[in-house]
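[Automated response] Your request has been received and processed.

Submitted sequence:
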Amino acid sequence: MSNSDYLFTSESVSEGHPDKVSDRISDAIVDCFLEADPFSRVACETLCTTNRIILAGEVRGPESLVNSNGIVDKSRMEEITRRAVKSIGYEQSGFHWKNSDVEVYLHGQSVDIAMGVDAAGNKDEGAGDQGIMFGYACNETANLMPAPIHLSHSILLSMAEARHSGSADGLLPDSKSQVTLRYVDGQPVGATSVVVSTQHSEKLSQDDVRELVRPHVVKSLPSGWMCPEDEFYVNPTGRFVIGGPDGDAGLTGRKIIVDTYGGAAPHGGGAFSGKDPTKVDRSAAYAARYLAKNVVAAGITSSCTIQLAYAIGVSKPLSLYVDTHGSSNVDGNKLAAALNEMVDLSPRGIREHLKLSRPIYERTAAYGHFGREVESDGGFSWEKTDLADALKSAF
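Generated structure:
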């Protein structure tokens, strides 16, 4: 096969996957602090296992943040944790929103880190850490995402909606999907295999689960793309009753490829969940997606990768790299210069341009941070294509 004809696979995991339970709780904590004070600093990690949830990390303030809007203390964080688990749907003997032990070990942010991030005198707000961040977009789907990860998310999201509505009796919160697509001349043309593993009640047989899952797969794939029957795998082990954190421990930040582009593009070193927007692991990755998506939406290229790099305590990005993968005649350096002019890529500039200092993060914890619809309250603001017209005119 030529380089343009190949198979490519991506996976997704549901909101009930143990790692996603942890991501959800961590982001719910971020939202609570940002709601109390939009300039909060939060880095919250969550561990969940059989009827036990542990929160650790640091926040701006000793053990609580107090202002005119209210108090965020350990009791409030425990309440938020239980609400998040209940919303996912865990009311099982081995993991229950009401019965799980919740321990909170968040403490004050290091003064050394705070000194580097804080604006003071002529110094602008600095990056919360060093690191590299990547953004990507391509024209394989309407939301300018790689098709394998988009379809993997779509299957699980459809199953979750059915479970929450009560129309998929017997399906439980923990599930995973994996979609393999065939590419011809660099474009996806159909699925060669689909894997779905989903937690289920004891009353369902493997055949029952297969037929419950099937319509969600068929609905999510484009017409004519369904894989051969012998390549449609549902619960290949034969049984998946014990699931969620009772079956496997979960940790914040372990599903970074699921969160981004399904392996179709590079990934920086940092996870997103549990971090406030002064952390460039999160905000600059959102900015890079925003820029890449606008470049593709402008019709300049069929795919675009953008890399940003930062140093802790330094406001300006150390580099901005643009790769159009040979699908554009536009010079990458000129494109990078234009993007730098259009958007202030300092941590403060990104935060203000995309309006990130708001409680909009809990909803990002499952089914991908990218390829989502911009919401009326500013959620997923990095999915806007408001730069596309200016880029089209410039190039």
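Summary generated for your ticket: The CA atoms of residues 59 and 289 lie 27 Å apart. The chain has ten helices and 15 strands.
If you did not submit this request, please reply to this message.
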